[in-house]
Amino acid sequence: MSKAKRRDTDAELALRRELYRRGRRYRVTYPIPGQRRRTIDVAFTKARLAVFVDGCFWHGCPEHGTKPRSNSEWWLTKLAANKARDEDTDLLLGQIGWTVIRIWEHESPDSAANRIDAVLNRHN
């Protein structure tokens, strides 16, 4: 697990390149207010928009998520805790006025950027 990238994954970099190409400027690994150890993958601070790029395995994608066969009980507990933390993070951000978008790693950067643009355009 220590080898798994926490930031700058291929999916995250592709999304950030697409957003930058569209002229969108953002903050990376932005700390969540009041949460020392949690960060937002891509943050638009003025619009209070938090974007998370979730890995299919680590966050339990309904399409591509897998269940490990070895040590399966431990992994199921770990993955359930990840989902619970995601839900808690969404709730915390919502309570302080942030909008949250969660993007799966298998989503195309173009369609993900379109979703983000829609929210940002409503904000302006």
How would you explain this protein's 3D organization?
There is one protein chain. This protein is of the alpha+beta class and 124 residues long. It has a single domain (10-14, 25-119), classed as Endonuclease, Chain A, CATH 3.40.960. It is built from four helices and four strands; from the N terminus they run H-E-E-E-H-H-E-H. The mean pLDDT is 91. Belongs to the Vsr family. GO terms for molecular function: endonuclease activity; hydrolase activity. Pfam families: Vsr.
Structural class: alpha+beta
Helical amount: 40-55%
Major β-sheet strand ordering: 1-2-3-4
Q: Please write the CATH class name.
A: Alpha Beta
Question: What's the overall average pLDDT, rounded?
Answer: 91
Q: From the alpha-carbon coordinates, what is the Rg to the nearest angstrom? A: 15 Å
Q: How many distinct helices?
A: 4
Sequence stretches where pLDDT stays below 50 over 5 or more residues: none
Note the main sheet: 4 strands, mixed
Q: SSE order, as H and E? A: HEEEHHEH
- CATH architecture descriptor text: 3-Layer(aba) Sandwich
Supply the CATH superfamily name: VSR Endonuclease
* Measured distance between first and last alpha carbons: 40 Å
> How much of the residues is beta strand, in percent?
15-25%
> What gross morphology would you assign?
globular
**Total number of domains:** 1
CATH topology: Endonuclease, Chain A
Number of strands: 4
